[in-house]
């Protein structure tokens, strides 16, 4: 199963507050990429394309606890850089593949 995390930055975390913890955040993410937990990630920008507003992660795990642990161990979380996070199980749909069954 895949978990999706979508994080948004605090409005005042776009400058020094974020860059102070950036190296630790990147090291945390890289360790989890190497372990196979993180399978996809991106930075998210406002529609102007220049203002960083957050990021997303796809995590390869069946465990909500593992997804929560990844989130809680992120220096951006511990230091309050992320303002909000959506965490959900995600069903990855491949373009051109048959649609998944309907959900009631």
UniProtKB/TrEMBL annotation:
Domain of life per record: Bacteria
Domain YCII-related: from-to ranges: 1-85
Pfam families given in the database record: YCII
Record family assignment: Belongs to the YciI family.
Protein name per Swiss-Prot or TrEMBL: YCII-related domain-containing protein
């Amino acid at each position: 199963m895949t978990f999706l995390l979508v994080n948004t930055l605090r409005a005042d975390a776009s400058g020094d507050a974020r860059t102070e913890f950036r190296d630790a955040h990147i090291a945390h993410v890289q360790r989890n990429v190497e372990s196979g937990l993180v399978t996809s990630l991106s930075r998210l920008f406002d529609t102007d394309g220049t203002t960083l507003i957050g990021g997303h992660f796809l995590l390869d795990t069946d465990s909500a606890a593992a997804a929560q642990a990844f989130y809680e161990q992120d220096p951006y979380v511990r230091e309050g850089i992320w303002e909000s996070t959506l965490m959900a199980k995600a069903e990855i749909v491949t373009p051109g593949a048959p649609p998944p069954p309907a959900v009631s």
